[in-house]
Amino acid sequence: MSGGVYGGDEVGAIIFDNGHQSLRVGYGGEDSPKAEIPTSLGVWEDATENSDSNHVGKKRYNIDVTAIQVRRKDMEIVSLMKDGMIEDWDMFERLAEYTYKQRLHALSEHHPILMTECPWNTRVKREKLLELMFEKFNVPAMYICKNAVLAAYANGRSTAMVVDSGATHTSAVPVHDGYVITQGIVKSPLGGDFITMQCRQFFEEKNIELVPACLVASKDAIREREVPRWIRKSGSQPTASWLSYMVRELLQDFQMNCLQVSDSPYDEDVANALPMKHFEFPTGYNDDYGSVRLMIPEALFDPSNVKGVGASILGVGPLVTTSVGMCDMDIRPSLYGSVVVTGGNSCLQGFSDRLNRDLATKTPPSMRLKIISANSSSERRYGAWIGGSILSSLGSFQQMWLSRQEYEESGKIILDKCA
Predict the structure, then answer these.
(1) CATH number for the domain formed by residue range(s) 156-189+313-373
(2) Which among 11, 237, 351, 355 is least surrounded, fewest beta carbons within 10 Å?
């Protein structure tokens, strides 16, 4: 440490990319995260007796994919995130401790840390994060950066319109010269969880029982659409939140394997002409799926036909055009010229092509439209993390770190350096 500036060349920075569904974490300079850990934890109370022989509940946590799968009769699955922001700080602290010890095998005081945040994160939450990392984890330096800006960097852009479709929402965020234009952010509550809910409704209507694999002891091989013959694992009855989480995992598997976005607005005849996809459930029930593969994800682009969705909710295409319209005239051409697609939902087959088609009809003829979508699904899924990895290893970024010394001298005011 010289002159209060953190020189982070000798040790690799650690990148924490917090999403509603999972935390992606790894070392700066690498091309993909080292670990992806669910941000939903298993929580239960362990009764411990104190000196007055009163039973006092001590909270216990199960963290990470394998531990969550373990069934306990009183374990609830709770998410520590809400609307893309950290809601439960105690759980976040546990998750960070676990990540350092078990997944990175690193000491927090040895590595600077780059945290991502959603563009609408509040000042109070940013200050709380800064305080937690410096006071509890003793990090030598840290920086907090907007995930949309990092997703743009990951695709080689400092000015872009970032379309991020994740678990809880889809957002269009304009980024200009590495800064988010806050008045241009447009959000829709339709995301991966909404698609999962649509899948669940479809299977319930068809009377297909959704049983997660961890509850199936054995099953018989059966023909298509035959009633499944299987045996349930013995053990205590799990909580509703645990069961719901496990069923969601099963439905997400169906989403990734079977769903596809139609190139043009949904048309049943076109959908029926496409090849069907086969899917087998953990109970052994199996079937081929045709038009429903395109019908369910259609809600992201055209929510008008979906029951229970208000008319005010925009599809992905209108999100982008509305957002661009709220920005300054001078930068609109450069936003249309680099529309960056990122987030877990963008891995759905045909997502970028459909967005391109929807926008091509709405873009003013004087502007050139370009959709930038990374070739591999993992690059789209981890866009913000990859941007953080690139940024933290740039020589020019090293003087941007908020060092421990600056924090001790000036306190939370140093957050103003994080744009």
Answers:
(1) 3.30.420.40
(2) 237
CATH match for 192-301 among 3.90.230.10, 3.90.640.10, 3.40.190.10, 3.40.50.720: 3.90.640.10
pTM over 0.85: yes
Whether domain 1-39+94-155+377-419 has CATH 1.20.1740.10: no
Q: How far apart are CA 114 and CA 325, in angstroms?
A: 32
Contact 163, 351 (CB under 8 A): no
How far apart CA 155 and CA 373 sit, in angstroms, is 8
What is the C-alpha separation between 133 and 384, in angstroms, rounded?
A: 20
pLDDT bracket for residue 55 (50, 70, 90): low
DSSP β-bridge partners for residue 331: none
pLDDT in tens, 223-281: 999 999 999 999 889 999 999 999 999 999 999 999 999 999 999 999 999 999 999 99
Task: Return the CA Rg of the chain.
Answer: 23
pLDDT tens digits for 328-367? 999 999 999 999 999 999 999 999 999 999 999 999 999 9
Contact 347, 382 (CB under 8 A): no
Burial (Cβ within 10 Å: 0-12, 13-18, ≥19) of residue 324: buried
